[in-house]
Amino acid sequence: MFDKVVIDMLLQGILESLFMVVFSTLFAYLIGLPLGIVLVVTDNEGIRPCGWLNSVLNVIVNLTRSVPFLILAVAIIPFTRFVVGTSIGPKATVVSLVIAGAPFVARLVEGSIQEVDKGVIEAAQSMGATSMQIILRVMLSESMPSLINGCAIAATTILGYSAMAGFCGGGGLGAIAVNYGYYRYQSDIMLVTVILLIIIVQIIQETGMKLTRMKDKRK
Amino acid sequence: MSGENPIIQIISMDKTFQTKGGEVHALTDINLAIEKGDVFGIIGASGAGKSTLVRCINLLEKPTQGSILFDGKDLMSLSKSQLMEARRSMGMIFQQFNLLMQKTALDNICFPLQISGVSKAKAQQRAWELLELVGLSNRAKSYPAQLSGGQKQRVAIARALATNPKVLLCDEATSALDPQTTSSILALLKSINQQFGITIIIITHEMSVIEEICNRVAIIDQSRIAEVGDVSEIFARPQSQAAQRLVYPNGERPVTFEGTRCARIVFDGRNSFEPVIANMVLDCKAAVNILYADTKNIDGKAVGQMVIQLPKETLAADKIMNYLRSHDLTVEEVNGYVR
Asked: Is the ipTM of this complex over 0.85?
């Protein structure tokens, strides 16, 4: 049953899943982190209020967030082809994962930064700090533990999405589970992929929590 | 203390907030001159507008009208970068300390220097000096969460002084601290004022803070300045109702002892701690009733106030008043004022 072919396939699946998670999370943060910061800063109570920009970004984030991932992945197939040249496989999945992940990341980042005490920001302003200095040296640095925790949440959520992408030509463990477990009724392979996914989620979550605790000096 | 050029001058300043319920007048027609080297108290009940006032001084809140002169410059006319520069000449400390929680005490003090472009090595050198000044050299590597309230405020003071400001703004800086810690923080502020000549502006709702370290005070009541003057003067002869509420023990209560005269005696530290009242009773051969007393012995000097009820006989009462006046005490008759 679990001969070399199956084991090789599972190993390949793990690598593909990790590839998708790492790169999607990375790109999702490249977009989501600045987006989250801008959401906080341009808020009415923010350090650079800008009502229209805040509203526009909020609408975009909400719209993207309200489309279920599988539908989003199918809907943007033309865009995916344009970016990576194909609509199937791990690379193609990364594109839809980034589009779905970025607004989610933006909300996580927004939440983390909003936890920073307003008084500390006011203190920095009283010292003559510029908005950029406040963003980099107060907001981000003070919310770092929470941001790391958020990153672990984002990575596990993106891993979950990547598994779903197995239904529409994605790669990785999700695709194996769908192709063998769902279409061929091979529940043993399905079970193994599920266990592997659980282990990966556990590792990401635990690492995130450890780093958060290590970084947090509030206790 | 009065010089020609006040370090801070507030000229007919208004501040209104736009809220859903309409305009709220936080401050109305504020005029203040704060001289170099002053320890200037601003006192008022909560909601009187004093925190808004201190935030207008460094333009964290923008006045709706009027102008703020800092060292002769109109802050409202400055460009953004000039304003940042001006803010570096004004340190500020807060009730909740507002330290960076993820940075050590040392790094917190380095922070204002580093954002103004000072190199890390230089910033650290200055930070160590300041830790020494506030008596926390041994806690340099501690995070705020590991420090007590008083220690946190000391770090905050060191941080506020890092850029060599001319003015230190204190927004309810001791309100979250116990009485003993409050005294030690006030003593530190006083010594900073004397050692470096830094002008200190203290926002508080506690008269005891004003008494302890301020030389001048402004009383804010219902968004206006009710009274400004030397602390000793206002403490001895409060004119406005707001001042009387603050100065008189337990505020002004309309409870009266019928037909009796009372005297309020102010001990302002000029008199040694001799048993004035006992001597007076022996000397005048008349008994008095002590209705209120709040006196402290600070370095052998009496500080505080006392309210005594005078005898019914006019002669004896006058004798006592004369006795008190002749002993260089500030006395005022407060007919009917009693708690």
From this structure: yes
